[in-house]
């Protein structure tokens, strides 16, 4: 595969230039001469590579939240972004099972973050040995369609997500322990002047009269706050760094720094919209401008080696008057 990465330059490449790169790679690729085969194999049709469609659901990735920073677009507008990094994210299994309604369930099992074999159970060591990958810290599975299975042992890259598209991020929120009603639910508290004695941050009355004589379930009261599974939806991908496996998403992501997060295609803005009757085939309503399809079935490390180091969405292209990183 033709490598187009410059050895010293790290100037971001926008999506319109990325299409020209794909075209140049296709034009400069050498012609493949088929090997001599027997007469029985000559009649077999050539197997085409799978292509993303509006009904395809791809696998997600396991990344680590590295923190927040800010970038400036070509209009000088400051954009807060969260940096997500992939740590040797690899495919460990493809799952096919029959659900209760007799339909097929398809999923791709992904693992990330290498760990020492000494701290891994024997059962998981055997599972990773079968997949021919090193032991991992976290293993998750992502439901996919039947055409989106990824070969076991494939190393996934940040180019799996195209700058300009939307993603959903799932993680555990920051745990804050036992908190009162004002911090947990935003209550304004009781009066801070006359008539209140040492109850300024109290939640006040929580029950009713003798009938029903109890507190209804779900009442907003003091209790444990945080450390819940949170899904932040429709975050736009601003930049992708293929050399460092970094994904820059606009906005905040739940969880503490260095926590593992699950990143997948946005369920509402991409999957649900593409499955709508009026949006089938109209990829310009689902994908970012200048992109015809997505890396399918997944963005691999081999694909990242043929692309520039940094790719940005056109609307977040860096101003020429700002210094490069």
TrEMBL record:
One of its GO terms (cellular component) is mitochondrial large ribosomal subunit. Keywords: Mitochondrion, Ribonucleoprotein, Ribosomal protein, Transit peptide. One of its GO terms (biological process) is translation. Residues 29-42 have a biased composition (Low complexity). It is found in: Mitochondrion. One of its GO terms (molecular function) is structural constituent of ribosome. Residues 29-50 are annotated as: Disordered. The keyword Transmembrane does not apply. NCBIfam families: L3_bact. PANTHER family: 50S RIBOSOMAL PROTEIN L3, LARGE RIBOSOMAL SUBUNIT PROTEIN UL3M. Belongs to the universal ribosomal protein uL3 family. HAMAP family: Ribosomal_uL3_B. This is Large ribosomal subunit protein uL3m.
